[in-house]
Amino acid sequence: MSFDIHVESLGEEARGHRFLTFGDYPRHVGIKGIQKLVNRFVMCLFTPVGTHLSDREYGTGLAAALTGNTEHSVLKDLARAAVSDAEDKIKE
After folding, report:
1. How many helices (H) and strands (E) does the chain have?
2. Quick check: pTM over 0.70?
3. Hey, where are the domains in the chain?
4. Which of 3-7, 22-26, 59-63, 76-80 has the lowest mean pLDDT?
5. 51 CB contacts (<8 Å, ≥6 apart)?
């Protein structure tokens, strides 16, 4: 089974210009199983389409929708579509 790098969000007190870190303990950097799946899903969900270096189709439009002035009803539909899109992309 392959391993992936564990990323976790930073607390408010530690946040500078970064939002993610590789974790506090080096022994927790290599992960597998459900945590690997969750990390891949979250990274795909919040990566804007076209910003990944090797795969321009990777990511969803959720980040752009969250930063824009979007109505709540439209945002719900965009979020559902982004979750479905991220699910399909990590299955590949």
Report:
1. 3, 4
2. no
3. 4-91
4. 22-26
5. 59
